[in-house]
Write a structure and sequence with these properties.
By secondary structure, the chain is α/β, with parallel strands linked by helices. Helices cover about 35% and strands about 25% of the residues.
Length: about 180
């Protein structure tokens, strides 16, 4: 069996109902992520927390030093667990995530977090392109409604489309329950 690592992407206060960018289903996704994190810790699987910040206040969200950038208490890192701060959508871009995975001997990754159609998408595709087998836990991820050309796409459809794309060509998609019972 390959050594596994858990990547927890951007489960930050900004995405909660009290944040500036609330996601559909974020509380359920965070609760499922918390169970997966607890399981990883119990089994000695390294957990890598990703935290998004926009440098130089270039966006009205994820502003450094605000409560919005803090990782949600339900999934907060334990002492010694790496927190990788990123300034871009892709968690690997200009961070030491790859080096952290390598230093911990990680050969396959499990991904949970937010947003399904952005930062989760980017890390899943990048990890797969780097050769890591990837598992995405669909009910431990969340997103929001999107709009394009006057058409609103409900969050559930955005999320389903992303999970279908991952399953089609980037990895395995499971529920957190399926993953935890395996």
């Amino acid at each position: 069996m390959k050594k596994r690592g858990l990547i927890v992407v951007d489960l930050q206060n900004e995405y909660l109902p009290t944040g500036k960018l609330p996601l559909s289903g974020i509380e359920a996704a965070s609760a499922n992520a918390a169970k997966v994190i607890a399981d990883a810790r119990a089994k000695g699987v390294p957990v890598f927390h990703i935290r998004h910040e926009f440098a130089n206040n270039e966006a009205p969200v994820f502003v450094p030093g605000t409560d919005g950038v803090e990782i949600q208490p339900a999934v907060a890192p334990f002492t010694g667990e790496p927190v990788i701060v990123k300034n871009y959508i892709n968690s690997f871009r200009e961070t030491n995530l790859k080096q952290q995975l390598d230093a911990n001997g990680v050969e396959e990754v499990v991904v949970v977090g937010a947003m399904s159609h952005m930062c989760v998408d980017a890390v899943v595709r990048a990890a797969a392109d780097m050769g890591y087998p990837v598992t995405v836990l669909h009910d431990a991820c969340a997103t929001l409604d999107l709009e394009f050309n006057g058409v609103t796409v409900p969050a559930a459809q955005v999320h389903a489309a992303m999970m279908a794309a991952f399953a089609f060509g980037y990895g395995t998609v499971k529920s957190s329950g399926e993953y935890l019972s395996a």
